Structures are given as C-alpha cells and as structure tokens.
Amino acid sequence: MIFERKYERARELQKEQMGDALRALEDEDLADKLEKNDVPAMILAALLTIVPVALLFLLTVAGIGYFFMVR
C-alpha cells in the first residue's frame, strides 16, 4: 500500500483518542447479545417491512403491463 505508514499512524492515533469507545464498535458474537425469541421477531419484522413494498411494486408492474396489453 502506498501510504501504509501514514494509515497505521492515523489508526493508532484514532485508537488512542477513542479509547474504549472503539471496542464497542468491534464485531462481537451476536449470539451472546440475542435473547430467546429475538431471531423469529427479527424475521417477522423484516417480512412485515419488505413484503408489502414488494407486493405493491409487483402489482404496479402487473397493472402497467395489463394496461398496455388490454388497451
């Protein structure tokens, strides 16, 4: 890398300035943070968010196609 030393110095300075706050951003095991029914709740929330938008989009595309075929 061209500026590897500068990059490393900047990262070290950032670590010094951030202190323990940087550790909070590190990737930890997600299973330790989840409770018993969190995964099904997240899946349900994703489905409730994505499916209506996808259906609306598909109905719009089908309606436009129907409009051009019938008329």
In a nutshell, what does this entry contain?
The chain has 71 residues and is mostly helical. Helices cover 80% and strands 0% of the residues.
Account of the protein in words:
With 71 residues, this protein is mostly helical. The chain has one domain. 80% of the residues lie in helices and 0% in strands. It has four helices and no strands. The chain has helices at residues 4-18, 21-25, 30-33, 38-70. The protein is elongated and about 65 Å long.
List the helices and strands and how they pair.
Blueprint: H1 4-18, H2 21-25, H3 30-33, H4 38-70
Helical element count?
4
Structural class given helices, strands, pairing? Answer: mainly alpha
Q: Taking Cα atoms only, what radius of gyration do you get, to the nearest Å? A: 24 Å
What share of the residues does DSSP label as strand, in percent?
under 5%
**Mean pLDDT score:** 84
Q: Roughly how much helix do the residues carry, as a percent range? A: over 70%
Q: Which descriptor suits the 3D outline?
A: elongated
Question: Cα distance, first to last residue?
Answer: 61 Å
> Any idea how many domains?
1
Report the count of strand segments: 0
N-to-C series of helices and strands: HHHH
Name the assembly state: single chain
Low-pLDDT runs: none
Largest sheet: none
